[in-house]
Amino acid sequence: MIGTLIRDYRIVTELGSGGMGTVYFAEHTLIGRRAAIKVLNPDVSRNEDIVARFFTEAKAVNSIRHPNIVDVTDFGHADSMYYIIMEMLEGETLGARLEMMRPLDERTSVRILSQVASAVGAVNDQGIVHRDLKPENIFLTNHPDYPDFVKVLDFGVVKLMGAPAEASHLTRPGSAIGTPAYMSPEQCLADARLDHRSDVYSLGVVGYEMLVGRLPFMGDSLEVMMGHARGTVVPPKERNPDLGGAINEVILRALAKKPDARFANMRELRLALEAAIAPPRPRVVTPAPAPEPPAPVIVEPPSPAPAAPTRVTIQERRPEEKRRPDDVQKLERIERVQTKKVGGKLREIIARRIAQNRLAVPSMPAVAVRCIEQLRDQNAKFSELAATVEKDPLIASRLLRIVNSPAYGGREPITSVENAISRLGMKPFKVILIELAAREVFTSKNQRIRQAFRGIWEHCLAVGMLARDIAAKLPGAADAEAAYLAGLFHDVGKPVVGALLLEAERSLIEELDEPFMTDTLWVKVVDDAHRDVGAALASQWTLPSSVAKAIAGCDAYEDGGRGSCTNLVRYANALTKRQGIYVGTIAADEVEAAIVEGRRVLGVDETTEAGFLAGLAERVASVTGAGSDKPKTINVAAKAH
């Protein structure tokens, strides 16, 4: 199949296969769009019922149009080959996540389960039962704005409510439709009355596994199905005492044997899950008003009516409106005060969430995590690492592009992942894996964030390169690899905080029907509050502690001279801004002051500094231009105070 054309998509590699079909990674031959193509296996494609069920999946998915359901863009058949073309997802399945980490904490579990409930609830509202909810069919995308953004997969065994059930029996588990470990009692018994509450049960099983770290019933297929049909569920809290009582009760109700005893629908389940982890509302007691004494009769002349209270708002004026100098100063003064107040409050919230381990930050792609684990073994082989990378074709293709870019390429082009790793070496390969993962965080899918922080990736790449060069050339300087990662990640918190503010703004607009803040104030608050988030992400990704420290503190120099990673990043950041590899408004005098102080702290003269900067812009362009037809351009707007 590799190289085969299907509707202008060329098959690149296989992603996975099962009893019904095989999924391939493909690219559009004209526009380069990536897609996943599911092809029905030839040995079953002669069965008309299976073919009909295969296309039922495509039609069912295509009719819903829910953000948490994988998009189907086309389906059809050619030369006895039946296929479905779907969006290409980057990330990992919940099953893969549970292989590496179990159990999951309550908030992460509820965040994932709520999205699944929303998606499957939309399916149920159309009279369709999914019938195969399981961790392998719940995909967690590498969404830069919303960590663990869910896409529900595999609608190949859906059932229309009211349609007759397929013949199956407990003594013949192989004939049942679904996956035994997650099937409802009525599904195990092939009850013709099976409806959407069967999906409620299956999602309850998934939730049990996430929160407990194991399934409610274990054994072979027959034993598991008997457990679902007749067995007693051990309460989740008995197996995981750290669970709260509320979440324990929600899961038990979802796993009720009788459908009538479960939640009536997915919406009820979702609301119950979210309520289970919500902080209790403080009880407000209103004291009874004291009796008022009789008012004395006083005759006074009428007083003028009080002035109506005034409300100060900040609005972005149209460019053609002229402001007086005092108006501009007043506006800037108000925005500084608001930035300090909103930014301070936001930092408090972020610090509290970090302390409680509740701050949601983007996760590193599963393939990168596995490769880094393999690299801890000093005897790791190139072939083994390549096999892991090839499980994620997007990372594999980007790795090849980087290795063949002017920054890394040799005389002969590299065409295999194994040869790419061999050319790089183990340590540079690890750094590039982290770099690829970081780029996904910076490349927001939200247009407002992209607009606000356009050029941020090029800027951070330049700061990382420059910090690494300075560390490599100055005797007694901090580790060059740590300096590179600290520079690369020094602004990584900006798109994450930007997404948090947008989510808050959407909620307030729904409630108050007015904007949360101006665009200028929004950017200033992000600038003021992003450091701790970036440091938290670096810690979660298990980067060196000096990297997280540098991200959190690079707004000021510290003791330690050139041995401090923080000092290297602050100096490199200022130099990069002066070079013009930055987008946005900068205070030119502040940048110059940071450079002058950096020379003193690091013991660098202007001649040495000029050597550091030689060819920096070209090197950044050679890397950023590796994945596109032309290098990106970067502009600077400088502001002197």
Q: How is this structure best described in words?
A:
49% of the residues lie in helices and 10% in strands. It is of the alpha+beta class and 641 residues long. The protein folds into four domains: 5-87, 2-Layer Sandwich (Phosphorylase Kinase, domain 1); 91-277, Transferase(Phosphotransferase) domain 1 (Transferase(Phosphotransferase), domain 1); 336-356 and 447-639, Orthogonal Bundle (Hypothetical protein af1432), CATH 1.10.3210; 362-442, no CATH class. The strands form four sheets. A six-stranded antiparallel beta sheet has the order 1-2-3-4-6-5, with helices on one face. A three-stranded antiparallel beta sheet has the order 7-9-10. Helix 22 crosses helix 23. The longest helix has 31 residues, at 325-355. The chain is globular, with a radius of gyration of 29 Å. The N and C termini lie far apart (63 Å).
Sum this structure up briefly:
The protein is an alpha+beta fold. Helices cover 49% and strands 10% of the residues.
Q: Tally of extended strands?
A: 13
Q: For the residues shown, what is the average pLDDT?
A: 80
CATH hierarchy: architecture of the largest domain: Orthogonal Bundle
**Rg from alpha-carbon coordinates:** 29 Å
Oligomerization: single chain
- How many structural domains? 4
Summarize the topology.
Layout: E1 5-6, E2 9-17, E3 21-28, E4 34-40, H1 48-64, E5 72-78, E6 81-87, E7 91-93, H2 94-100, H3 106-125, E8 128-129, E9 138-141, E10 149-152, E11 159-160, H4 185-188, H5 197-212, H6 221-230, H7 236-239, H8 245-254, H9 266-277, H10 325-355, H11 366-375, H12 382-389, H13 393-403, H14 417-424, H15 426-442, H16 447-452, H17 456-473, H18 480-489, H19 493-512, H20 519-529, H21 531-540, H22 545-553, H23 565-579, E12 585-587, H24 588-602, H25 606-613, H26 616-624, E13 637-639
Parallel strand pairs: 12-13
Antiparallel strand pairs: 1-2, 2-3, 3-4, 4-6, 5-6, 7-9, 8-11, 9-10
Helix pairs in contact: 3-5, 3-9, 5-8, 8-9, 10-20, 11-12, 11-15, 12-14, 13-14, 15-18, 17-18, 17-23, 17-26, 18-22, 18-23, 19-20, 19-21, 21-22, 22-23, 23-24
